[in-house]
Design goal:
The protein has helices at 28-43, 57-66, 82-90, 107-115, and strands at residues 2-8, 50-53, 72-73, 98-103, 128-133, 147-152. The protein is α/β, with parallel strands linked by helices. It has one domain: 3-Layer(aba) Sandwich (Rossmann fold). A 6-stranded mixed β-sheet has the order 3-2-4-1-5-6, sandwiched between helices. α2 (57-66) links the parallel β2 (50-53) and β3. α1 crosses α2 (57-66). The chain starts with a strand and ends in a 6-residue tail after the last strand.
Length: 158
């Protein structure tokens, strides 16, 4: 059994000072929501054997807000399609039982929907989905095989 947790970055500013998407910072609401999500993750006792994250600024700032995570930044996660995310997950060492991926939509939302057979319809900023997978090897991950354990959004924490 493996556990995959997906965390979308928190709310970001519409534009970066330099105009590039990669460099967009979190908004004030995004900073607050990343802290709240981190508090809830600790309250639930969520822990991870490996954390993979996009190196985009808004993801790095989300990681900082959540706290207590030691991610490996992986450029493949930035703007990744569902297929690319399946490839990233499939390349994870099988000694990892609990994996957290922190990234972006639409890739994460589509991945969550595919893994849970459409149980997840929306994946707003700062959303977290914990999905159990009945697999022994990450390379065996496939659509409609996951069981949704937790779906958290900033609104569900209110």
């Amino acid at each position: 059994m493996k556990t995959l947790t997906l965390l979308r970055h928190a709310k970001a500013e519409r534009e970066s000072p330099g105009g590039g998407d990669f460099d967009r910072a979190l908004s004030a609401r995004g900073r607050e929501n990343s802290i709240r999500m981190g508090q809830e993750m600790r309250r639930l006792g969520l822990h991870f054997d490996r954390v993979l994250a996009s190196p985009a600024r808004r993801v790095v700032e989300t990681v900082e807000g959540v706290g207590e995570l030691l991610p490996q930044y992986d450029e493949r996660i930035y703007d990744a399609s569902t297929g690319q995310l399946f490839d990233v997950i499939g390349s994870v060492d099988d000694g990892v039982g609990k994996l957290l991926i922190i990234g972006h939509n639409p890739g994460l939302e589509r991945l969550a929907a595919k893994l849970t057979a459409g149980e997840i319809q929306e994946f707003p900023t700062a959303a977290l989905a914990e999905i159990e997978l009945p697999i022994e090897h990450w390379r065996d991950i496939k659509e409609a095989s996951g069981r949704l354990v937790h779906l958290l959004t900033p609104k569900t924490l209110d």
